[in-house]
Amino acid sequence: MTINHHPPEDLLASFATGALDESERLVVAVHVAGCQRCGRFVQAMEQLAGAALEDAAPAPIVPGAFDAVMARIHDHPAETVRPLPPRVIAEHPDLPEVLRRCRIGKRRRVAPGVSMQPIELPGGGKARAFLLQSAPGTRMLEHSHTGTELTCVLKGSFSHQGGRYGPGDFDYGDDDVDHRPIVGDEGPCLCLVAMTGDLRINGFFGRLISPFIRL
Amino acid sequence: MGDVRRGKIADKRPKAKVGWAELIGRVASQGDREAFKSLFEHFAPRVKGFMLKAGCSADQAEEIAQETLIAVWRKAGQFDPATTGVAAWIFTIARNLRIDAVRRAARGGKSGSEAELADAADPADTADIVISRVEDASRVKAAIERLSAEQSRVIRLSFMEERPHPEIASMLGIPLGTVKSRIRLAMNRLRDLLDEQR
User: In this predicted structure, what is the pLDDT of residue A85?
Assistant: First the structure.
């Protein structure tokens, strides 16, 4: 898998420090899991954050905290609550592990050749994340947004003025972008998308899809 | 960081980062309470201070600091000095706990929602697993060390301390318009340094 399109560095930095919105974190996580180059960058940010932690002005811990912590450790010596192993979703048996750990909603057809599945995020919030599946050759909606749209390709490809986006590639759209992706002919395209703000739909397709995206 | 501190606290404290890694190793292999206590006394107040600066309330910061050290005990066996530094590892634990705390607050602190989510994986752990840490930590460290002091400072102020750009401008005595470009240049430089080492 050759990855040609990466998240902007400030997004990776915010990912590393835990400052991203829930849905954005998920999309960046999926990219980083498959991209050693960005993984290294995130590690570098974590090292810098570690140095900042080491230099942080110590704040006094409440008296007796150490004994309280030891008591909690002895009550539960090991972590007893572990997440269940990743599930295999029949429709998408080969999703990245991060996604297989999420709860994924029902698939809905939103337009000819296009369907979506919402991803239920534990924190809620304004942002939405969903899987978007499009048939080969689909011309996607022409759209722009008031917020941001983060996309990571899982399967297949699409192209727009920014180039061709294949598996692992990351696309960052903000309110400056007004593009109209075309899905590659080689097969269906499956993307993970996180969206903040409002989508402005410019085409016929968009008017169809918009009630579904505004969850 | 590497400075020698005076007083009896400093005597008990390992001087180098290797020392912290050794203490974690002792916690992992023997459940060494004294080793853990040294780690606790050094890192818990720093995690708390870091979280306060990041905007947590005093109670939240205290809770995250204590939970972080509990996780240090429980996960000590997972610490791998070849892939990360001690402070960075502890930072990632604290960061994930903070993400969890934000999520709990967003759910309205309802414990019922925990049960609802029981059959679904909790993506809270995603931060733990996403990065395949194949790289040697020393190589990442070498790249960071090649950043200029000015560059690592601006990255730290902007992302680790989450300071607004006007504040960074006045701290560094540079025009506001320069802050953004300086951050960008620093990030690009770090990318290049990391790419070079392949």
Answer: 58
Structural domains in chain B? 1-130 (1.10.1740.10), 135-198 (1.10.10.10)
Q: What pLDDT, in 10s, does the model give residues A100-152? A: 878 888 888 887 888 989 888 876 666 789 999 999 998 876 666 667 789 99
> Cα(A30)–Cα(A165) distance, rounded to whole angstroms?
15
Mean per-residue pLDDT, A46-50: 94
- H helix intervals, chain B: 8-12, 17-30, 33-53, 58-75, 86-106, 112-116, 126-129, 137-145, 149-155, 165-172, 176-196
What pLDDT was estimated at residue A102?
A: 82
Cβ–Cβ below 8 Å for B88 and A56? no
Q: Which residues of B touch A21 (CB under 8 A)?
A: none
Indicate which CATH number applies to the domain containing A99: 2.60.120.10
B122 touching chain A per CB within 8 A: yes
Domain ranges, residue A73: 1-78+95-215
**Phi and psi torsions of B75, nearest 5°:** -100, 10
Over the stretch B21-65, which tens digit does the pLDDT of each residue have? 999 999 999 999 999 999 999 999 999 999 998 889 999 999 999
Q: The tokens of B164 are what?
A: 């607004």
User: Cα(B9)–Cα(B42) distance, rounded to whole angstroms?
Assistant: 10
Q: Let me know: does A202 contact A178? Beta carbons within 8 Å.
A: yes
d(CA A123, CA A213): 18
Q: Give pLDDT, residue A75.
A: 86
Strand partners, A165: A158
Q: Confirm or reject contact between A108 and chain B (CB < 8 A).
A: no
Residue A33 falls inside a structural domain: yes
Q: Chain B residue closest to A26 (CA)?
A: B126
pLDDT in tens, B114-161: 433 333 334 444 444 445 555 567 888 899 999 999 999 999 999 998
**What is Dmax (Cα atoms) for chain B?**
54
The rounded distance, in Å, linking the Cα atoms of B172 and A4 is 35
Asked if residue A83 is part of any domain, the answer here is no
pTM for the complete prediction?
0.85
